[in-house]
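Q: What structure does this chain adopt?
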Amino acid sequence: MIRRLQLWELGDLNKLFSESDTIQAKLPTNPKKMNDEKLSKTFAKLVLEGKIKAAMKLLDQQNSKGILPLSKAQ
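A:
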């Protein structure tokens, strides 16, 4: 952490961005991703059972794109 703060103070943003790319590449993806048909059936089942919070959580988990890729500011 101290090393990253030193890079920040030195203004070495390229090295910091490179490091962040490496860290993000190592983060796990969503292995529980369902296909659309299974997702819609599971969602409908939860709603019909009155489990609205669980149904919304399911949608949130399935539609999460994870960490967005870095892009240059415009």
